[in-house]
Amino acid sequence: MQTTADITIIGAGVIGLAVAAEVANEKRQVYVLERNATWGQETSSRHSGVIHAGIYYPINSLKARLCVSGNRILYRLCQQNNIGCSKLGKLIVATTAKEVEELETLIQRGNSNGALGLEMLSRKALKQLEPNVEGMAAIFSAETGIIDSHALMSYFAAKAKSNQAQIVYRTRVVGIEKIKDGYQVEVVDSEGGFSFFTRVLINCAGLSCDKIAGLAGINIDDAGYRLHYCKGEYFSLSNAKRGLVSHLIFPVPPPRVTGAGIHVVMDLDGRLRLGPSIDYVDVIDYSVTDKHKQLFYDATKRFLPFIEIDDLQPEMAGIRPKLQGPDESIKDFVIKGEGDKGLLGFINLVGIESPGLTAAPAIARYVGSLVAELL
Ligand SMILES: Cc1cc2nc3c(=O)[nH]c(=O)nc-3n(C[C@H](O)[C@H](O)[C@H](O)COP(=O)(O)OP(=O)(O)OC[C@H]3O[C@@H](n4cnc5c(N)ncnc54)[C@H](O)[C@@H]3O)c2cc1C
To answer: Which residues are 175's β-sheet partners?
Structure first.
């Protein structure tokens, strides 16, 4: 690495890579610093892999706007660059009269957000589309799909590198000091450590983004940046149940939207999984045991009557970097330049939970516009 950079991005998850692909060009010295041995080892490889349409999020929120535009950009990117994806469509299934009412609110919100292809289905229409699913009514979302997130990250990494960005692995940011016209960044790597100067610093550190903001001198409690870790487990469904549904099947989300509810996700090869659950935790631990098997079974049996408890096997888990604490209402993404805190040139991305994967290319463009005001 050289001793000066124009732009330094902390974190090589899908967000850091998308941002690097967006802001790198031959006139700029751009670095991406990643503490792991390669990209995409944390939240960006521990999710449902769903391209969301933008139904759930508050109107005009960054989550809504960046999800809706990310959805459109992603399908185009996939088509143009041979990235695996499938516009399977999704059903949000109501199983009680109260949930049927909720569907009305959801479809109105989705339409206001600009989510395309939403349609209310009667019980009969639901049965025609998915004979093995039980429900009183449903929303059909034609623009929801699934994506090979590994291929997407590989595309962003290759694009960033072809635009002269360098991705530096096994390199952990441990110190940030504001100095004239930029930042002195201290890192630890396999050979010890060093520090260098960067004009612009972009925090895409996922589960550590609050700590990075703190290193730069921001009081993360005053700023509202302290993260809550929220674990989501997945159980795989027996291969015998493959083919029994052909869309993504979601429940009506619980009132305070902490997540979309335990749903059926399908991989591009047709394998079915259930998840993710919602469990606020203090430590990052990705292990999954049988402990929550009954909870998964109970949560899905009412709309997926073909599931037997023995079909479920613990699979994997991801951890959401949430700004929303337990029993709090939904919080938006924070994506902002911190000039108002005396930190001109420092751009924070905090709380990039779902729909972060869907929104990644739109987030990158948004960050690109913040960078354009600085360089
Ligand atoms: C259970 C679950 C399900 C989800 N499902 C969906 C979905 O279906 N659709 C959707 O759109 N979104 C979904 N998401 C959200 C999506 O996965 C995330 O928004 C996205 O992956 C966040 O990417 P990121 O790059 O911000 O974070 P990460 O992938 O965590 O990357 C951050 C990187 O920063 C690095 N880093 C941290 N600190 C330092 C440091 N000090 N020095 C150097 N490097 C550092 C880390 O090593 C890491 O590689 C889901 C998330 C979860 C948890």
So the answer is: 186
For ligand 1, is residue 253 a contact (CB within 6 Å)? no
Residue 5, token pair as written in the block: 């950079």
Ligand 1 centroid to Cα of residue 43, in Å, is 3
* Closest-CA residue to 194 (of 27, 17, 31): 31
How many residues would you count in the chain?
Answer: 375
Whether 70 lines ligand 1, by a CB cut-off of 6 Å, is no
Report the DSSP pairing between strands 192-203 and 4-10.
parallel
Q: Is 10 in the pocket of ligand 1 (CB under 6 A)?
A: yes
Q: From 19, 42, 190, give the residue whose CB has the most ligand 1 atoms within 8 Å, as the site to mutate.
A: 42
**Residues with Cβ < 8 Å from 195, sequence gap 6 or more?**
175, 184, 185, 186, 187
Token pair in block for residue 283: 């430590």
Whether pTM > 0.70 for this model: the answer is yes
State which of 22, 32, 38, 47 you would mutate to test the pocket of ligand 1, scoring each by most atoms of that ligand within 8 A of its C-beta: 47
- Name the amino acid, one letter, at 302: R
- Domains belonging to the chain, first-starting first, are 4-45+151-226+330-372 (3.50.50.60), 90-142+228-322 (3.30.9.10)
Tokens representing 352? 């990039």
- Give me ligand 1 centre to Cα 207, in Å: 7
Nearest CA to ligand 1 atom 33: 11
Centre of ligand 1 from the C-alpha of residue 44, in Å: 4
Query: What are the pLDDT tens digits along the chain (375 aa)?
Result: 778 999 999 999 999 999 999 999 999 999 999 999 999 999 999 999 999 999 999 999 999 999 999 999 999 999 999 999 999 999 999 999 999 999 999 999 999 999 999 999 999 999 999 999 999 999 999 999 999 999 999 999 999 999 999 999 999 999 999 999 999 999 999 999 999 999 999 999 999 999 999 999 999 999 999 999 999 999 999 999 999 999 999 999 977 666 788 999 999 999 999 999 999 999 999 999 999 999 999 999 999 999 999 999 999 999 999 999 998 999 999 999 999 999 999 999 999 999 999 999 999 999 999 999 999
- The reply to whether ligand 1 has any atom less than 6 angstroms from the CB of 351 is no
